[in-house]
Write a structure and sequence with these properties.
With 284 residues, the chain is α/β, with parallel strands linked by helices. The chain is built from ten helices and eight strands.
Length: 284
């Protein structure tokens, strides 16, 4: 294929008989590998009926799209596969191969229930409880939460403490966080908390300076304030890093990390598991 023949824009269809989150994440991960390519992403979710599925397939064909799908109903999977074969369309069936392999290994037939991942079961309500905990104990509102938390995040302003707390809460972890201000009193509960569940977040001064300036602009205020002063930022970070050494906690520099990457590093560093789905307890 010559450069002139190559597609200028790649169209991806996500088709699912449930919310389509799994296929959407795979699509996003794939697209991220090609920052110079233009993509169009279409979602056709909750396609549980034959008519709705066929409409989604026709839409994908019309757009000359590649298709990522998570369909669990055998009859609907066959309809989709027959359509792809007839029209010579690229498709990737995300669920069928691993589901079939588990059935082969165990001899247990799958339920073939769309959206089974999202049952309102005990695990789901634990996740809601963890998210409520993160909101209640955000920004050091109540230091008593430090002792109940699975994770305590420390950091100066704009080191992603709140987004990280909520992201980890979605993995069924109770997370509290405390903003660090050199002039502020540190609550006694901080010293009573097990250092092995504390994570100190830090950042590069120049990057933090840019983030804080942008925050001021979004508020309609001058970018250059004491909040974004580079020397003040350096002193804040020095105070935080000295504190982390005294505590003996894990330290993560978030300067070049996404929320997802930082969360993964926290889970690894503290030997925690993602319990957001059906994870079992780690064997002793």
């Amino acid at each position: 294929m010559t450069n002139d023949e190559q597609k200028q824009c790649v169209t991806i269809f996500v088709i699912s008989d449930s919310a389509g989150e799994t296929a959407s994440k795979l699509a996003a991960a794939s697209m991220a590998q090609y920052p110079t390519v233009d993509f169009s992403l279409f979602r056709r979710t909750f396609a549980k009926e034959e008519e709705k599925l066929k409409k989604a397939l026709e839409d994908a064909k019309r757009e000359n799209a590649m298709v990522l799908h998570t369909i669990v109903n055998d009859r609907l999977v066959k309809i989709a596969n027959d359509f792809f074969e007839e029209h010579d369309m690229y498709h990737f069936d995300i669920l069928t191969p691993p589901v079939a392999e588990i059935e082969r290994l165990t001899g247990v037939a799958p339920t073939r229930e769309p959206g089974a991942l999202h049952h309102l079961n005990e695990n789901y309500f634990k996740r809601i409880e963890a998210m409520e905990f993160a909101v209640k104990y955000d920004d050091g509102k109540d230091p008593r939460g430090f002792l109940e938390a699975d994770v305590l995040l420390l950091g100066v302003s704009r080191t992603s403490k709140t987004p990280l707390s909520l992201f980890l809460a979605n993995k069924n972890l109770k997370v509290a966080n405390l903003p660090l201000i050199p002039e502020a009193h540190l609550p006694k509960q901080l010293w009573e908390t097990n250092p092995k569940k504390i994570v100190g977040l830090t950042n590069d001064p120049d990057i933090l300076n840019g983030i804080r300036k942008e925050r001021m602009r979004t508020y309609g205020l001058p970018a250059d304030t004491s909040y974004s002063d580079i020397e003040k930022i350096r002193k804040e970070l020095e105070f935080a890093n000295d504190l982390y050494q005294k505590i003996g906690c894990e330290v993560i520099n978030v300067a070049s990390l996404s929320i997802e990457e930082t969360a993964s590093m926290i889970l690894n560093a503290l030997n925690l598991e993602d319990h957001s789905y059906y994870a079992t307890e780690t064997p002793e």
